[in-house]
Amino acid sequence: MTTAAEEKSDWRRIVAAVAVFLGMMWVLGVAGGWSLPVVLVGIITVVAGHEFGHYWVAKRAGMTVTDFFVGFGPVAWSTTRGGTRYGVRMFPIGGYVKVPGMTWEDHSVAPENEAGTYRAATTTRKVLFASAGVAMNMVMAVLLLWSALVAVGWPAQDHVGVGAGYNLNTS
């Protein structure tokens, strides 16, 4: 059980980590243009969304999730809430959600906790867990398409241009 002082300290670390990340993105944007920061934020968003799909299904299926991380390599930041360790690692090129029992060699699970393992889940729940990341990718693609259509609109067949009143067809 965490104390109020520990929770306050966790929030301070979260705010500091976000501030450092945003500062790094700003420096990259000013130094070399905004393309690289936009791509990095996009990759991190897609990875986090993909992993959230696995996480959400695992929790709904009654599996115990011990880790939810974005990135690989050394841990840059992490916190534990409700038995799950959430965090960010140094290289934002992937991520993972760890559920005990995903390998048959994983004997670190106590017998009383076996019901929450991956190997104890039904085949249907295992398939849903495995495919949840791809399903989230599809959801994110639809949201991106929708936002692009809202921001830019449909292509027109009768003219080329942006905005009302800009029309190259003068006939």
Major sheet: order of its strands? Answer: 1-2
Q: Ranges with pLDDT <50 over ≥5 residues?
A: none
Assembly of the depicted chains: single chain
Element string (H = helix, E = strand): HHEEH
Question: How can the largest sheet be summarized?
Answer: 2 strands, antiparallel
Distance between the termini: 74 Å
Number of strands: 2
Tell me what the structure shows.
The chain has 171 residues and is α+β, with helices and mostly antiparallel strands. It is 49% helix and 18% strand. The chain contains three helices and two strands. The protein has helices at residues 4-32, 35-60, 123-151, and strands at residues 67-81, 84-98. It has a two-stranded antiparallel ribbon. Helix 1 packs antiparallel against helix 2 and helix 2 (35-60) packs antiparallel against helix 3. The longest helix is centred in the first third of the chain and has 29 residues, at 4-32. The termini are far apart. The mean pLDDT is 83.
